[in-house]
């Protein structure tokens, strides 16, 4: 009889339930939040059933964000732009609102870390759903984005898709000789498979002035961050702060209360030690 669920596949390693527990503890809004791993073909049925009975809100993670966009009766502008939804809210008996808080969550965390300013050059590695979700927010700061991806055509398609929002270009990994960027973001899922043969190697770094951010997180250093530190990176972070931030914006949509993001990140990082 849960009111708030995280739908995805896989979801068993998600830190979201822990994060919402802290939000509850510090705000007094009870969301009774749990994870729900669903089979691909049962996603729609499961979500609609959930909202018919006890459901008030849901988070959506890989691989269902585009499907969640399609099932939403109304969507926010930021969900519309990316055509993907990571949070749902029941607003009446037959109306579900879809929103996307990934991009704003990332921006919040990059600002917290002092990793971003307007008009900076960003290298985005990866051209899947995770990359797509964050591009509009990065472009809204007038930053320029180069996308590099193992499969070039996907990077090209993504750059074309967002061309009207700002300065965004696809580049071939073979053309990436010097890493002369303010910020490098990993949005590939390569770390999940523990691969060590990262596809952009043999490039020149300026570790003392480049920030590295991995959208993913683990209790230990992620594969991407291991690769960065091996190259001499000094400023780097995994995506735990983004996870807390996008959850905070979801929580706000459901409760009208905005949790203390910094406090929760501090607690989670402390528990890691
Ligand atoms: P997500 O929703 O997590 O973004 P996705 O849409 O499947 O998932 O995208 C996965 C991204 O990780 C893609 O950019 C993918 O590159 P391809 O487009 O070439 O498939 C990238 N990726 C996955 N495994 C990788 C690996 N071992 N090395 C480099 N990139 C990898």
From TrEMBL:
GO terms for cellular component: cytosol. The active site is at residue 65. The keyword Amino-acid biosynthesis applies. The keyword NADP applies. It comes from the Bacteria. Gene3D superfamilies: Leucine Dehydrogenase, chain A, domain 1, NAD(P)-binding Rossmann-like Domain. GO terms for biological process: amino acid biosynthetic process; aromatic amino acid family biosynthetic process; chorismate biosynthetic process; shikimate metabolic process. Keywords: Amino-acid biosynthesis, Aromatic amino acid biosynthesis, NADP, Oxidoreductase. Its EC number is 1.1.1.25. Residues 118-189 form the Quinate/shikimate 5-dehydrogenase/glutamyl-tRNA reductase domain. GO terms for molecular function: NADP binding; shikimate 3-dehydrogenase (NADP+) activity. Shikimate binds at residues 14-16, 61, 86, 102, 217, 246. Residues 6-88 form the Shikimate dehydrogenase substrate binding N-terminal domain. InterPro entries: Aminoacid_DH-like_N_sf (IPR046346), NAD(P)-bd_dom_sf (IPR036291), SDH_C (IPR041121), Shikimate_DH (IPR011342), Shikimate_DH-bd_N (IPR013708), Shikimate_DH_fam (IPR022893), Shikm_DH/Glu-tRNA_Rdtase (IPR006151). NADP(+) binds at residues 126-130, 149-154, 215, 239. Pfam families: SDH_C, Shikimate_DH, Shikimate_dh_N. Pathway: Metabolic intermediate biosynthesis; chorismate biosynthesis; chorismate from D-erythrose 4-phosphate and phosphoenolpyruvate: step 4/7. Residues 239-266 form the SDH C-terminal domain. Homodimer. Belongs to the shikimate dehydrogenase family. Involved in the biosynthesis of the chorismate, which leads to the biosynthesis of aromatic amino acids. Catalyzes the reversible NADPH linked reduction of 3-dehydroshikimate (DHSA) to yield shikimate (SA). This is Shikimate dehydrogenase (NADP(+)). It comes from Buchnera aphidicola.
């Amino acid at each position: 009889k849960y009111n708030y669920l995280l739908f995805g596949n896989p979801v068993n390693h998600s830190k979201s339930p822990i994060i919402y527990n802290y939000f509850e503890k510090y705000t007094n809004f009870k969301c009774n939040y749990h994870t729900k791993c669903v089979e691909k073909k049962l996603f729609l049925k499961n979500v609609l059933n959930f909202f018919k009975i006890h459901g008030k809100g849901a988070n959506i993670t890989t691989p269902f964000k585009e499907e969640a966009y399609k099932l939403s009766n109304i969507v926010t502008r930021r969900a519309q732009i990316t055509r993907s939804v990571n949070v749902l809210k029941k607003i009446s008996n037959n109306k579900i609102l879809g929103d996307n808080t990934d991009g704003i969550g990332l921006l919040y965390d990059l600002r917290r870390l002092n990793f971003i300013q307007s008009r900076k050059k960003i290298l985005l590695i990866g051209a899947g759903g995770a990359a797509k979700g964050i591009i509009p927010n990065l472009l809204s700061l007038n930053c320029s984005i180069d996308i590099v991806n193992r499969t070039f055509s996907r990077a090209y398609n993504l750059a074309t898709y967002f061309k009207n929002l700002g300065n965004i270009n696809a580049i071939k990994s073979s053309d990436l000789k010097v890493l002369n960027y303010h910020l490098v973001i990993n949005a590939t899922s390569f770390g999940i498979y523990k691969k060590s043969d990262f596809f952009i190697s043999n490039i020149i770094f300026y570790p003392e002035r480049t920030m590295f951010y991995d959208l993913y997180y683990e209790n230990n250093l992620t594969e991407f961050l291991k690769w960065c530190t091996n190259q001499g990176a000094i400023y780097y972070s995994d995506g735990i702060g983004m996870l807390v931030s996008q959850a905070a914006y979801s929580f706000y949509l459901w409760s009208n209360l905005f949790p203390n993001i910094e406090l929760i990140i501090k607690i989670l990082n402390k528990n890691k030690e």
